[in-house]
Amino acid sequence: MAEAVRYVCGGCQMAIEAWSDGNPYYLDDDGIKHYAYHPDHELLDRCIGNDSPHICLACGAEFMVDSLAPETTCPKCGSGDFAATFHLGGQRCPFCKNGVFTPDPNYHCIS
Ligand SMILES: [Zn+2]
Ligand SMILES: [Zn+2]
Q1: I need a surface site. Which of 32, 37, 82, 102 has the fewest CB within 10 A?
Q2: Residue ranges making up the domain that contains 65
Q3: What per-residue confidence (pLDDT) applies to 110?
Q4: Which residues surround ligand 2, an ion (CB under 5 A)?
Q5: How many domains does the chain have?
Q6: Greater confidence, 4 or 10?
């Protein structure tokens, strides 16, 4: 079961949507990464890692962090200040550098 949230910046109204479970993946016999999507539970059971979306709190770049080989810096600006988009609540907005992200209470979505 995946759950989505939306965070809205109180300053510039920038909205970021995130899913709770990222993008689970498995490797095939050739070592190629494939993503498994719901509701393919047979493939999900083979998953060994997870690429989860993160956002850089310095430049606003969105990028994937691989659970098996996690990034420690933003690939765009090199900042170490980034957060998982699903846990963005209370983080400073990188776009206006002024507001803070809060969850949108009217947005709720389950797949
Ligand atoms: Zn903002
Ligand atoms: Zn950055």
Answers
A1: 32
A2: 3-110
A3: 63
A4: 56, 58-59, 61, 74, 76-77, 79
A5: 1
A6: 10
